[in-house]
């Protein structure tokens, strides 16, 4: 799941090497923390959060397969 | 600037010079080595390496690479075919997991289509941009037919009851299908209300 967020983020930003993803596993849910270079924040959030929303939609679909709730946080 | 010829001490160095001039990663070009370079006769004179580096169709390549990476990361068993027109590049996704990638009312497919366009539009400066469309198992066509049928059925109901009907929230493209389906209708008209993502079509008597 973290791998998916990393793949998408790396393709969007100008500094792919600065992309960091951290997974926190709970009982029923996983929190994925996404960190990018400060100047790339807009690239993963988008106008009115549209890009962040699209990332969450895709992750939600992937999570369906593993029957877990996934929360993506951009920090 | 679709191809460059560069020289360097080694083939690798010459390729890297061209990549820097193009400003693209290695997988966006094809390389033809014109001269391997290296040491000449008896190692006395060293020859320069010469390469011809040709820029691929970067919009299509970046979209293709991104899609492949996402499908792999989601561990899905999905392949795709590409259909090109003058203004669009369409990827038809196939495989047993396509349902998962379509999602409820196509929301996952729309999200991926949006992202793939964001990624590919990084290369807008290189060639005329062509919009990327994702379809899966003919989903878009079937959805268009369903929405057209729904629009006609609801128009009939509006005429019978003489009351307007508000549809559920839809994407701009889906709203367009409803508007188009009823644009020549003699007795009803359509318009949209509300803000994205809750914008809805209203069907009303003229």
TrEMBL record, chain B:
<dbReference type="InterPro" id="IPR032782">
    <property type="entry name" value="KhpB_N"/>
</dbReference>
<keyword id="KW-0961">Cell wall biogenesis/degradation</keyword>
<dbReference type="InterPro" id="IPR038008">
    <property type="entry name" value="Jag_KH"/>
</dbReference>
<keyword id="KW-0143">Chaperone</keyword>
<dbReference type="InterPro" id="IPR038247">
    <property type="entry name" value="Jag_N_dom_sf"/>
</dbReference>
<dbReference type="GO" id="GO:0005737">
    <property type="term" value="C:cytoplasm"/>
</dbReference>
<protein>
    <recommendedName>
        <fullName>RNA-binding protein KhpB</fullName>
    </recommendedName>
</protein>
<dbReference type="GO" id="GO:0008360">
    <property type="term" value="P:regulation of cell shape"/>
</dbReference>
<dbReference type="InterPro" id="IPR015946">
    <property type="entry name" value="KH_dom-like_a/b"/>
</dbReference>
<dbReference type="InterPro" id="IPR036867">
    <property type="entry name" value="R3H_dom_sf"/>
</dbReference>
<dbReference type="InterPro" id="IPR034079">
    <property type="entry name" value="R3H_KhpB"/>
</dbReference>
<keyword id="KW-0694">RNA-binding</keyword>
<comment type="similarity">
    <text>Belongs to the KhpB RNA-binding protein family.</text>
</comment>
<dbReference type="GO" id="GO:0003723">
    <property type="term" value="F:RNA binding"/>
</dbReference>
<comment type="subunit">
    <text>Forms a complex with KhpA.</text>
</comment>
<dbReference type="GO" id="GO:0071555">
    <property type="term" value="P:cell wall organization"/>
</dbReference>
<keyword id="KW-0133">Cell shape</keyword>
<dbReference type="InterPro" id="IPR001374">
    <property type="entry name" value="R3H_dom"/>
</dbReference>
<dbReference type="Pfam" id="PF14804">
    <property type="entry name" value="Jag_N"/>
</dbReference>
<dbReference type="GO" id="GO:0009252">
    <property type="term" value="P:peptidoglycan biosynthetic process"/>
</dbReference>
<dbReference type="Pfam" id="PF13083">
    <property type="entry name" value="KH_KhpA-B"/>
</dbReference>
<comment type="function">
    <text>A probable RNA chaperone. Forms a complex with KhpA which binds to cellular RNA and controls its expression. Plays a role in peptidoglycan (PG) homeostasis and cell length regulation.</text>
</comment>
<dbReference type="Pfam" id="PF01424">
    <property type="entry name" value="R3H"/>
</dbReference>
<dbReference type="InterPro" id="IPR039247">
    <property type="entry name" value="KhpB"/>
</dbReference>
<feature type="domain" description="R3H">
    <location>
        <begin position="141"/>
        <end position="206"/>
    </location>
</feature>
<keyword id="KW-0963">Cytoplasm</keyword>
